[in-house]
């Protein structure tokens, strides 16, 4: 652990040396471009050059820091951005656990924080501190509802859960428990695993013994593949559901034939060609094209979450400028109020409608049901 | 729990245990010969697996630049030493050979269509790429402080581990990868389906362990390494170069590490940072053997694999805790039974 800290400290200090342009609006971006969740953080950092460069006639500069996936480093990065750089808002961090730890600092200093993280716990239940936090991903329960509805419609009575032993997997287990109860579906097995596990035979056997109609795997990134290949190898023949955490192209590449027929709910970014035209589709298509031009690969959804944060800010800044100058507490507070009043704003992940209670702001336009057919993401019809 | 489940778990535990045993042996070998606890061993595992995966995706593994960089630094140091003392023709030839080797490997990697060549060639290339990194690492980071206390060597070893994980992220990216199995066939053992890759892992591990045993018992070089392990000073007086011993053990460790990675890559998804936890379990095996006994270390490592497989089944969320708690009773038992020999502090 200490060794990881040393590295992140080095990285932090190297980013300190970057000269900063003197600009009007400063936005900090904290992402995990090294460490265990680099998978999430790298496309997020790559998105920074694509973020809006001006809003309401003022120039925006972005200050990017890496937290090395370490929650302690996230706190340091936030403090530095707030106390030394006097940023007007912060986009980040990448990890759910990292985000939970910095909410109080954002709230104490009155800095709006736009978190592109998975767990709904950063905005729910709403508290005095969490009112400074906005979340640019779909809440787990929004995705889960779509899956449970689909399960009910196809006559599934029992399910097994396999989740990662981290906030992501745990929150899913919680959400599913509530939703399945209402839908009269029984959870007959609940297993956990670590991302770096080299074998999942034990968990797979446990699930097989319970023999559920379907299995839901709740794991972020490529770790969602192994439970599924293990189950297939062991001869499990029921339906397999995945969460939006699996909605990445490496999932298809690593899973191959074993992931054929998987059902998951995620933002429409994966199946843009198949969804009807909408403002969201236009923005997402442009984002993907720009990203491809810059890096030669399609961005993971995580990058889209950061772009959305930028778009939300761009949308809120003009009205906030009326109340104060950038860099002042009045401006930040007005920015928060303006973000909360976001109405019908389309972005890559869906359409945002923020309210005082809902700081994620998605409705069912933010997710579609997707399946894997012939090794490609396809809209489930 | 019935017989079928027990067989499946046992097979799983044996597969992992075989890999842990290989790693435990290399940790032990490196430790007894050089007093270095080789923490970066796990990185060789991931480098091996991820290099294979890159090749199978038809990409040139970026690891070649690490090899080239290390060889260049190594040769530059050699040349500098030559100039400082006197120029030795044979030594200069060696330097040219080293450079030539790196260039040939890189030329091969860039000109072959890597995804289409037979798998055995991919494996050979991967090993040719990674094994030389072992001795160069010894030469660059450990040879200058070969006489330092074991603690200093441990600290350098940790630093090297952290750096190599970072290099891994840079070269291979944050994505997990897995490779194609050596062969697609599976077969039945009673009611249990066995994957052929499992057998490959177990057979190759046994083969390597036996080969190591024969090499150490029968060959002159093996005996030289054993002599160094028994008594460093004594071996030196007999004309065994400690530098040679260090480089040879590091080459062996790099070979075993990357071979393990290649073996398990078809069974599991490996990430740039997966290596540490794998080698740590090998380390638990080595500790059970008291960092001295090869057979006990190998048996201990297999036991770790077994306990891991069964604890996943019974309590998946406490698996790591169960495996690593295992080390405590053994440490207590070891420290009660051994006379405290602190030979080199």
From TrEMBL, chain A:
Pfam short name (any one): Peripla_BP_6
Domain Leucine-binding protein: 25-360
Stretches assigned to coiled coil: none
Signal peptide bounds: 1-23
Keywords of the record: Signal
Database matches in PANTHER family: BLR7848 PROTEIN, LEUCINE-SPECIFIC-BINDING PROTEIN
Family, similarity comment: Belongs to the leucine-binding protein family.
Protein name: Leucine-binding protein domain-containing protein
Species the sequence originates in: Marinomonas spartinae
From TrEMBL, chain B:
InterPro entries found in the cross-reference section: ABC_transp_permease, BCAA_transport_permease
Top-level lineage group: Bacteria
Transmembrane segments: 20-45, 95-113, 119-138, 150-172, 198-216, 250-271, 283-306, 318-336
Gene Ontology MF term list: transmembrane transporter activity
Membrane topology: Multi-pass membrane protein
Keyword Transferase: no
Family, per entry: Belongs to the binding-protein-dependent transport system permease family. LivHM subfamily.
Entry protein name: Branched-chain amino acid transporter permease subunit LivH
Keyword vocabulary terms for this entry: Amino-acid transport, Cell membrane, Membrane, Transmembrane, Transmembrane helix, Transport
An example Gene Ontology CC term for this record: plasma membrane
Cellular location(s): Cell inner membrane
GO biological processes: amino acid transport
